[in-house]
Amino acid sequence: MFRKLILASVLSLATLATAHAGQQYVDETGFAVSGYDPVAFFELKQVPVGQKQPHAVPGRADITAEYNGAKWAFSSEANRAKFLADPAKYAPAYDGHCAYGISQGGKVPGNPNLWRIVDGKLYLNITPTVVGFWESDIPGSLDKSQANWGTLESADASTRSWKAIDDNKGTYSGSAPVAN
Fold first, then answer.
1. What are the record keywords, sorted (predicted)?
2. Distance in angstroms (rounded) separating the CA atoms of residues 95 and 92
C-alpha cells in the first residue's frame, strides 16, 4: 500500500511538472539551445554585466538526450549525465526563449551566445542590443518576465531563427551541434 502511494505521488508530480512545461524553443538545428551544451554554461567563466560572455560550447550530435519535448546535445557524456540527473537546473529559463522578450510580453528566440546565469538559472537573450536593455535592470526584467510567464508559457514556441537577425552577426562562429 505504501509503495503504491509513493508511486502515485511520483507519477502525479511528474504529470504536474510536464503540464507546466511550455514548448521548448528549437531552431533549424532541430536541437534545444541550438545544439549547444546547456551544462557547459555553468562551467564557463561568467563576465561582469556589460561585457561580452564567452561563446557557448557546441554539443555533439552523437551525445544527446530528450527533455521537454526536445532533443538536447552535449559536449561530453559527463555533461549529459549531469543534465539527466537534474534537467530543470540546466535547461534555460522560459524554455530557451529570450528573457527580455518574455519581460516585454512575447516569445522570441534565445541566442545561446547571449547568456547570463542569475541565481543559478540560465537566461538567454535574442540580440546584443537586447542584452543591453536586459542588463540595465536585470532584477526588474526578471520580475516582469516572471509575471508574464504565467500567460506566455502555454503559447506556441517561437519559430524564428536568431541567426537570421542582422544584429546577431558576429555573435557566433560555426554551428552546433558538431559531428564527432
1. Signal
2. 6
